[in-house]
Amino acid sequence: MTEPEPGLGQNRIRTLAVLSVPAVLIGVVSALILFVLDELSRQLQDLLWDVLPHAVGIDPDGGWWIFGMLTATGLAVGLMVRYLPGHAGPDSAAAELGGSALPLKVVPSLAAVALLGLAGGVSLGPENPIIAINTAVLTALLARFFRRVPARLVLGLTMAGTVGALFGTPVAAALLFTGMAGAMADPGALFDKLFLPLVSAGAGAAVMTTLGGTMLPASIPEAGSPGGWDVLAAMAIAPLAAAFGLAGVLAFRWAHRQFRRLRSPVLFTTLGGALLGLLGVLGGPLTLFKGAEESEELLHSQGESFSTLAVLAAVKLAALVVAAAAGFRGGRIFPAVFVGVAFGLAAGALLPDIRADAAVSAAVLGVVLAIARDGWLALFIAVVITGDVTVSAMLCLAILPAWLVVTHAPHMVAEDDGGARPA
Description:
Elements: H1 8-55, H2 63-83, H3 107-120, H4 127-145, H5 151-167, H6 171-183, H7 190-211, H8 228-260, H9 265-283, H10 292-299, H11 306-325, H12 333-350, H13 356-372, H14 375-386, H15 392-406
Helix pairs in contact: 1-3, 1-4, 1-5, 1-7, 2-3, 2-9, 3-4, 4-5, 5-6, 5-7, 6-7, 6-14, 8-11, 8-13, 8-15, 9-11, 10-12, 11-12, 12-13, 13-14, 13-15, 14-15
């Protein structure tokens, strides 16, 4: 084994130590922006779905309010996308997590559209817009005060800090960046490449935990270690759930093309909002919003039948497809978790001898894998849902047949239309 060149190790240590300062700053600012956006969306959601309907004497869980609110949300989002400066940035349907930094002028319109979608009941999460907002803000901030930090590094650290804040732990960012770091041609140990993302993710997670905890509060009541039949059931449920998720991916790619034939964002987001309203009437309030709190509520519900749970899973998947395809700005991970929870509980209703945490975690694993196409992230979320690390061995086996189902299937990304403005 060759020895490192003299001084190389010391230079690397000094570089990592110096860059830890902006990495901490990036994690802290990322978490603060996420917290503010989340709190504002909660306040607006309370106004739209509690204060306002009760002030006019209408049941907020009634079909007319659900349909009207989501249709109005679609119209308002379309008007913002069409007429506000920056046009809320590029369509989330055509972008993976991360990407290049947007101009600062895009941030206000993107934040407004994301805020309204989260509060209005649209079945999308905050991850895509908040990463884009944080990247734009922090790229501009560090270009002013830390000019020697490469822009590429700022992008990576912002994504790490935001992911750490979203899930309340740097572990999610570490797993996400392991695949990226492994593909890098840069010299050095893997942990050298993960060091700064972990610093940023740890800072973001610490701030978010201090302020309000995680955005994925759902967990299954503790039930002990899984047995042999649970492992076999998980290995069957995970690929079935992945195939269910892939059906949504295929429907999304078709729906995105159909919506774009309308050309005007005012038309296709309003139509999307109306369709989301109809789906909300069909599935009920549980199928609205990003799905994090709704997943927790569903997990602690009692005695739901197979047919009810199957309808919830199908309606939420359809709502995710419509919301992602119709020009709303948002991410797909949180609603995918709800789909997986409903699918897993439905599977458990058919197989009552199988533990609920085994069925649900395997289904969440399969759906998130199909939607996000990241094995590490899917494994992490599936373990978090159970709140029990002992299921990790079972899930590592369950992901293998699920990966065979999704590995050559299309991703849930549409062709970039250059933004939502009409040509």
